[in-house]
Write a structure and sequence with these properties.
The complex is a heterodimer of chains A (about 575) and B (about 290). Chain A is of the alpha/beta class and about 575 residues long. Helix content of chain A is about 35%, strand content about 20%. In chain A, strand 2 and strand 3 form a beta hairpin. The longest helix of chain A is centred in the N-terminal third of the chain and has 21 residues. Chain B has eleven helices and eight strands. Chain B has an eight-stranded mixed beta sheet with strand order 2-1-3-4-6-5-8-7, sandwiched between helices. In chain B, helix 1 crosses helix 7 and helix 4 packs across helix 5. The longest helix of chain B is centred in the first third of the chain and has 15 residues. In chain B, about 55% of the residues are buried. The chains are: A alpha/beta (about 575), B alpha/beta (about 290). Chains A and B meet through strand 7, helix 7, strand 8, helix 9 and helix 10 of A and strand 1, strand 2, helix 3, helix 5 and helix 11 of B.
Chain lengths: ~575, ~290
């Protein structure tokens, strides 16, 4: 009996793959099971190959593995695409009535369940429900109580009316009973226990959106781009309930400038985009930094360059975020390492932006952004959210920051590099902001001394932040081990799972959520025997940064085929690299 | 500062403009400052946004909250500021290059959104600060350093662009007619929605065709035309597309204009947020059960 189940549904885009996957994932989560989902999708609306994978266990799961136990194959290609992951106990559910799909090639010992999905769906009220029939069949195969599916169907179809919900429940039941009647015995391999645990199921984009609202973000402007669009879709309809507003701008240049305008007016403001959008925003990024405007810019990375592979995973924009834009301006780069961290780091990003009055890049990668994971709801405890607006001054505090002519020194040179901030409407705080080099009043200057003074002032904010903030790493594995694995972004969960496959190899893992400013890894790297940096790009951008910081050569594990790292695969690579 | 005792000089900064002597931008800016004061605004509640070029310097010479941004993107900045705090008086200034070339996309979309912004374009039909190249409003035979035989393409008609995008307030003024210019900008400020004021603001250094004399002699002042009804869409359309004449005044005003923030229920000053997560935030987590 297996409890750790890897399940997938695959077919053509437009077949309802994602919603079917989500229904099953929610049913598992509500039944008190941990869930980790991943999506394989193409940049097209209909046709092609698309799949939704669900891994579930009573224990925590935080990555995909290289194994598929139950597969709903709506097309022949679904089987072909997953051949490598099928094993002798895998169960494949298919509809033999679909003639083009009668003799798929699967490993000899897999169990094929030929189920008339379409005709059973028609019996329940419509062929469109064939995926739901298949879900019912999965419940039978995995001995998962079908009542748990009913709740998900209520949630998914509740707004379409009672009869639609009932038809779907009937469809699931027909699939369930068909397996029980025709394939009695197949359920013996899997048994998905239910528990009393309460979990929430969400993805990284949703966690970023929720974090933004929690942090008091009220204004969002963005332009739709995969895989960042979910952030905008999440905020739309929700942020209004908190007095905020979302604008779908005409392009990315407009989006960041709108966000900048709202931030100057005092709102906590954000835009989100993906790599190509970051390129377009670069000019204004410099203005944000030079005018010392607090702004959160979320970059949900996808595979580049240019249009690249828009629906595939990559961590290729690190250099762009660290160094992008003409001239030299301070910026912070935060990289959450899990779905939950997407929430917490978003809250932190808003605080850092206002405390230090600069742009903060918040970067997720595609894998984390579209991956749903279960958590205990306490992970998102709203009572723990703290707001720090930094040196935002009201009219009573203005006079301390005025010159002898009562002019407000919006860029006052201070020991910590941080100036007071007055927003329009504040009496006595009138000033101009500009992307031109400026003096303390915000007025254009080419005075050499003032130029140096203002550049130093802006850069000093970074030193201040390094003194005051805790830009630390997270640590896993054997903390005394001589072998060191370093990672950033979504790889954390996969590496933690990979530890379970490493047998007697002792490894210390550092997961770094702060790219700039970042923790000093010099001692960690210098004292380790072997160091390997894991990242989803071809050249090892973070590895370069570490070599630059520590003056030590590090090994690299890079994956840039667009597909997520898998825990068991990665464990092999780590072993080979460290033992080489 | 209360609005009763605000004078237009309160909107003046102590910086001397570096515009060329005789530049039309002086008159354009003076009218904007007068209009702001006479409509009861104060520097504290006014946000002026501009882009790059001669027109972009306006934030330095006026006294209010202001942002001098990047080329062509002033309208989105103004849009964000207005929505974040609808109580602000948001005025955006730009040149013909800023508004009708690099920023023309934003112009069309700001018009169709009907954001409550007063947009004053200092139209001199040339690129001044880069020393005399053709602009999108330059005449097709206007010879410049980059168009030795003229652009050989028709100029942009900003009023027609605004009208086709559903503009709710479309006006044209002339910087040296101080009284009329101020009146038109005042009406634009008082209009609920996006107001375009295309202001002819002659460049005395590089444009020897579209001069003060030219505009003084050719502009037809609609306030002197008894039978012109600014609320009549067809009449406005004819005037805007009239190839033989150029008009001064409010060419079109939609009486039923609803500004974007009202249409979308955006009323709060977003600068004010609670100390912790807002009330009801826990419900956001519950959605994921």
């Amino acid at each position: 009996m297996h409890d750790d189940l890897n399940w997938a549904i695959g077919g053509e885009a437009g077949d309802g793959i994602a919603s079917t996957g989500k229904i099953f994932a929610q049913a598992l989560s509500r039944a008190g099971r941990h869930v980790f989902t991943s999506k394989d999708f193409a940049s097209r609306i209909r046709g092609g190959y698309t799949a939704y994978k669900v891994r579930t266990s009573v224990d925590e799961v935080q990555s995909v593995v290289d194994r598929l136990d139950v597969l709903i194959a709506l097309t022949e290609r679904t089987v072909d695409e997953n051949l490598d992951e099928l094993h002798e106990e895998s169960v494949i559910i298919f509809d033999g009535d679909r003639t083009e799909f009668s003799d798929f090639e699967a490993p000899d010992d897999t169990v094929g369940l030929d189920i008339p999905l379409k005709s059973l769906a028609e019996d329940a009220g419509g062929a469109i429900m064939r995926n739901i029939v298949a879900l019912g069949a999965v419940c039978a195969v995995t001995d998962f109580p079908i009542e748990n599916l009913d709740e998900s169907l209520d949630k998914r179809f509740g707004n379409k009316g009672e009869s639609i919900v009932e038809n779907n429940k009937e469809a699931a039941r027909l699939g369930y009973e068909y397996v029980k009647d025709e394939y009695a015995g197949v359920e013996n391999s899997y048994e998905l226990e239910t528990t009393d645990n309460d979990y929430v199921l969400l993805n990284g984009d949703e966690a970023i959106g929720m974090g933004a609202i929690a942090a008091g973000c009220r204004f969002y402007a963005g332009y739709p781009i995969t895989p960042a669009t979910d952030v905008m879709e999440y905020l739309t309809g929700r942020i209004e309930q908190f007095g905020g507003h979302v604008v779908q701008a005409e392009d990315e240049l407009s989006a960041i400038n709108m966000a900048l305008g709202a931030a100057r007016a005092g709102a906590r403001s954000m835009t989100a985009t993906s790599g190509p959008g970051i390129d377009l925003m670069s000019e204004t990024f410099g203005l944000v930094a030079t005018s010392e405007t607090p702004l959160v810019i979320t970059n949900v990375m996808r595979s580049g360059p240019s249009t690249g592979m828009p629906t595939k995973q990559e961590q290729g924009d690190l250099n762009m975020m660290l160094y992008g834009g003409h001239g030299e301006v301070p910026r912070f780069v935060l990289a959450p390492t899990s779905v939950a961290e997407c929430f917490h780091k978003t809250v932190e990003a808003f605080n850092l932006a206002e405390k230090y009055q600069l742009p903060v890049y918040l970067t997720a990668d595609l894998s984390m952004a579209v991956t749903e994971r279960t958590y205990e709801p306490d992970e998102f405890d709203m009572d723990e959210v703290e707001i720090d607006r930094g040196k935002l001054v009201d009219e009573d505090e203005i006079s301390a920051w005025q010159n002898e002519k009562d002019q407000f020194k919006a860029h006052a040179v201070t020991a910590d590099g941080i100036s007071p901030r007055a927003v329009p409407g504040t009496s006595g705080g009138v000033h101009m902001s500009t992307g031109l080099e400026h003096d303390e009043l915000g007025r254009r200057t080419e005075d050499t001394d003032v130029r140096v003074e203002q550049v130093d002032k802006r850069n000093r904010k970074v030193e201040t932040a390094e003194e005051r903030e805790d830009f630390d790493y997270r640590e896993f594995g054997d903390t005394d081990a001589d072998n060191l694995v370093i990672s950033w972004g979504s790889n954390e969960g996969t590496i933690v799972e990979a530890l379970g496959y490493l047998d007697d190899l002792d490894v210390r893992v550092l997961s770094v959520p702060y790219i700039f400013p970042r923790p000093d890894l010099t001692e960690d790297v210098n004292t380790a025997d072997e160091v390997v940096v894991v990242e989803a790009n071809a050249t090892g951008q973070f590895a370069d940064v570490i070599e630059h910081d520590t003056l030590e050569r590090v090994d690299r594990i890079n994956k840039y085929d667009g597909v997520d790292f898998k825990a068991d695969e990665l464990a092999d690579e780590i072993k080979q690299t460290l033992e080489a | 500062m209360s609005s009763e005792n605000v004078r237009f000089t309160d909107f003046k900064s102590d910086k001397q403009p570096t515009w060329c002597p005789g530049c039309g931008d002086f008159g354009t800016m003076n009218g904007m400052m007068k209009a702001l004061a006479e409509t009861g605004n104060t520097p504290d509640d006014t946000f002026v946004v501009a882009g790059i070029g001669c027109s972009g310097k306006i934030g330095t010479y006026m006294r209010s909250y202001a942002l001098h941004g990047v080329h062509g993107r002033a309208l989105p900045v103004g849009t964000g500021a207005k929505l974040a705090n609808p109580d602000l008086e948001v005025m955006v200034a730009g040149g013909d290059g800023d508004g009708y070339s690099i920023g023309v996309g934003h112009f069309i979309h700001a018009v169709r959104r009907n954001v409550d912004i007063t947009y004053v374009v200092m139209d001199n039909r040339i690129y001044g600060l880069t020393k005399g190249q053709a602009s999108p409003t330059s005449r097709s035979d206007f010879e410049t350093s980059t168009t030795p035989e003229g652009p050989k393409q028709p100029p942009v008609n900003p009023l027609a662009l605004a009208m086709s995008a559903g503009g709710s307030f479309i006006a044209q003024s002339f910087s040296s007619d101080a009284l009329r210019h101020t009146e038109i900008v005042k009406e634009a400020i008082e209009h609920d929605g996006f107001s375009l004021v295309n202001t002819f603001s002659p460049c005395v250094t590089f444009n020897d065709v579209d001069t003060y004399d030219y505009f003084r002699d050719s502009l037809v002042d609609l306030s002197e035309e008894d039978d012109y009804d600014r609320h009549d869409y067809d009449q406005a359309k004819d005037a805007i597309l009239d190839a033989d004449k150029e008009y001064m005044g409010v060419l079109y005003q939609d009486e039923n204009s609803t500004p974007y923030h009202e249409a979308h229920g955006v009323t709060e000053n977003m600068a004010e947020i609670p100390d912790g997560a807002p009330d009801g935030a826990t419900d956001l987590v519950r959605e994921f059960y």
